[in-house]
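Many groups now describe folds with learned vocabularies. In that spirit, our science desk offers one protein's residues alongside their backbone shape tokens.
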Amino acid sequence: PDGRLLAAASGRRILLYHIDSRDLTAQFDCDRNIRDIAFSPDGRVLASADGAGRLALWDVAVSGESAVWNEPATVRALAVSPDGGTVASAAGYLRQGRMEDVAHITLRDRRTGAIRHRLEGHERAVSSVDYSPDGKLLASTGNDWTVRLWNPESGELLRVLYRHGRAGDRVVFSRDGTRLAAIFPGIVKVWDTGTWSLAGNLEVDPSESRWHSPGLEFGPEGRFLYSGGGDSRLRKWELASGKQVAVLDVHSNNVRDLRIDPDGRWLIS
């Protein structure tokens, strides 16, 4: 969160790098392939989730595991609340002779592991969750083609914001909380969070969204949105005009994630 460290997951390993020196500072070894990772706002704890439903909290300072929780299904996405007190995990699939969708979001107390709420409403697996910067909202999307808004304090479903003809891959709030974006095959939708009116339709090559959770990130100043996905390219969008203003063809395979450091110096993919 302070822009000093970069966390990356590769297979069963989590790697921590110092951004300025590019040095590897720590490595965490896990039992299963990692599906998602998320820092706490103070940067002291890194949460991880694997394909077996195992959630772990890692102490960044001592490079050790500090807590482990288990979900009965694959966890596809994580988010830590802005106050650092809650970990939200999005459930994916449960294997019981055949693959079955598990469509809930679990909110756990970060310090005790106690379940505060289980948010139910999605009809199929949830693929992405994100807290608003003030922590008053939690957005989610998944294989039921919807974007949903929740009150994380009460666990109440506030509204179904959007239904698309295909599965949603990612939702993300802007850093000032005034915009929410969601990416679907062929399109990025942007909403004004003050009125929940549609603020933008960004047309995307469908191949960019064909993989689970393509990258989607607002720039720190809120003027631009960055995306990446199955066509190996990174795209920069101007929100005011809805136009694509830059394309970077720097990868040889699909882009699974991207981040921008707090100062806007680095785009990492």
Remarks:
- The chain has two domains: 1-168, 169-269.
